[in-house]
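pasting DUF2797 domain-containing protein for the record, 261 residues
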Amino acid sequence: MQIVGYETGVGTDGDPEPAELLVADRDGGIERIDLSPGRTLTYDLDERHCAGTIHDGAHIACSESAAPYCAAHRDVWVCARCTGTCLKDEMDCHDPHAIYLAAFAPSRFKVGVTRLWRLETRLREQGADRAAHVRTVENGRIAREIEAGLAADVDGLVDRVRVETKRAGLAATVDAAAWERLLDRFDVLDRFTFEYGLDLTDRPMAETMLTGRVVGTKGRLLVLERAGSTYAVDLRDLVGHEVVDRRSERDLQASLGAFGG
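structre below
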């Protein structure tokens, strides 16, 4: 089995849902590993290589060593690099876009854009702690221009937050005073506060593994408890790994033992 993708646990309406890992078998079938809080995982990670692609619900494998994806299977989203000049052959972002500010504990503040109907979904996908919708514009090109300008001109505001920064803030709370000072500079249309149910007192250690009790997920970070310690796993770092479920092996051995008796 190979981990070939993940879903961060956000419905299309922005409501939280259990996160899942997508796992492919050797015949191209796709199974899902439920990452609901309280679930015990018993998977060992093996070699890692390109996760291939999923087409019409079936996995197409790739043996290239590059991971999580080789050059042929790497999905490059050009819109993420847009600053107002469309990088596509034809602009296709004509629907209303929201410009938002997102807070990541303790004091990292980001400006971003998304299609208006996806606003709350996008914020949860990123693992934002707080957010504010500050403007709606008619299309993505205008939104990207404004986003780039705010990131360049407003002190303390960035247009991207690294996973390492989000991991470091998992046990922290947002600097409310700094957040309010930032919002005072904008005409806020709506505010959001998100809870992820982690209730951590100490910062989890960074690790790439899939064994332990699921504490919860926040964006693409999976928090596991194992032997009294907590670990934060970037779901993207799991993609491409071959996996073995040790519980299935034990069940098989138990069945063989019963048969032999």
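The chain has two domains: 2-69+198-260, 78-193.
DSSP finds six helices and 16 strands in the chain.
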